[in-house]
Amino acid sequence: MLGGCASYGNGGLLGDILGGGNNYGYDARGDFERAAVEACGREASRFGRVNVERVDQQGRDYVFVYGRIETRDYDRDEFTCVFREDGRIVDFQTR
């Protein structure tokens, strides 16, 4: 289980550095979804360049983020991330 914190503000630390947020190629709707994309994108970026493809909110408490990672390991070029409403990543997997 991995933990990470995210700011519900205007893009958090990455947004401040990059000038207004990144969203990893995904047009997030709302602060909760944006926070999930940023936190999960940041976690996935440890493996390579990230492109978020889909975001699904499951109830009020969880957002699932799906995307691709540009990497040389084609067996691990997709990721799934579960972000909880308290700002923590509760599951992150590559495949």
Helices and strands, in N-to-C order? Answer: HHEEEE
First-to-last CA distance: 16 Å
- Portion in strands: 25-35%
Largest sheet features: 4 strands, antiparallel
Structural class: alpha+beta
Strand count: 4
Strand order of the largest sheet: 1-2-3-4
As residue ranges, the low-confidence spans are 1-20
- Average pLDDT, all residues: 82
Radius of gyration: 12 Å
User: Considering DSSP H and I runs of 4 or more, what fraction of the residues is helical?
Assistant: 10-25%
- Which overall shape is indicated by the principal axes computed on the Cα atoms? globular
What is the number of helices? 2
Task: Throw out a few tags for this protein.
2 helices, about 100 residues, globular, single chain, about 20% helix, Lipoprotein, 4-stranded antiparallel sheet, alpha+beta
Would you kindly provide a written description of the structure presented here, covering whatever features stand out?
- This protein is an alpha+beta fold and 95 residues long.
- It has two helices and four strands, in the order ααββββ.
- It starts with 11 loop residues before the first helix and ends with a strand.
- This is Lipoprotein.
Summarize the topology.
Layout: H1 12-18, H2 31-44, E1 49-58, E2 62-70, E3 78-84, E4 89-94
Protein name: Lipoprotein
